Amino acid sequence: QVRLVESGGGLVQPGGSLRLSCAVSGMAHSAATMAWHRQAPGKPREWVASMTTAGNTYYDNSVKGRFAIARDNASNTMFLEMSSLKSEDSAVYYCNVPAWNYWGQGTQVTVSS
């Protein structure tokens, strides 16, 4: 059974940084394209970034240059490094395996002074 567990969210001031983690069990995270999504209150869930099995990365324009997706094969974990955070980045962040529609439970990120 595949399980995705996000962590690392919290409260951060505008301009600050956070690193989100997605611990993967039941499959090798490098075996499929992995993605991060987010959902702010009252808004639909939106795609943020993806990493393919080959390690290619893709970002939504709203986060390009500020966010970076990475993975650690030893721990079977995917990361989302977020910097220069803005209030509009506040949302619940989810990791996802698009091919099989696996989702984690999400982690809350709040950017506020």
How many helical stretches? 0
Q: List how many beta strands DSSP finds.
A: 11
Q: Which percent range fits the helix content?
A: under 10%
What is the beta-strand fraction? over 45%
Unreliable residue stretches: none
Mean pLDDT: 95
Describe this structure in words.
- With 113 residues, the protein is mostly beta strands.
- 0% of the residues lie in helices and 50% in strands.
- The protein has no helices and eleven strands.
- The strands form two sheets. Strands 2, 4, 5, 6, 9, 10 and 11 form a seven-stranded mixed beta sheet that branches. It has a four-stranded antiparallel beta sheet with strand order 1-3-8-7, with no helix packed on it.
- It is globular and about 40 Å long.
- The termini are far apart.
- The model has no long low-confidence stretch (mean pLDDT 95).
Q: What's this entry about, in short?
A:
By secondary structure, the chain is mainly β. The protein has strands at residues 3-7, 10-12, 18-25, 34-39, 46-51, 57-59, 67-72, 77-82, 91-97, 102-103, 107-111. The protein has no helices and eleven strands.
Notable characteristics:
mainly beta, 0% helix, four-stranded antiparallel sheet, seven-stranded mixed sheet, 113 residues, globular
List the SSEs and their pairings.
Elements lengths: L2 E5 L2 E3 L5 E8 L8 E6 L6 E6 L5 E3 L7 E6 L4 E6 L8 E7 L4 E2 L3 E5 L2
Parallel strand pairs: 2-11
Antiparallel strand pairs: 1-3, 3-8, 4-5, 4-9, 5-6, 7-8, 9-10, 9-11
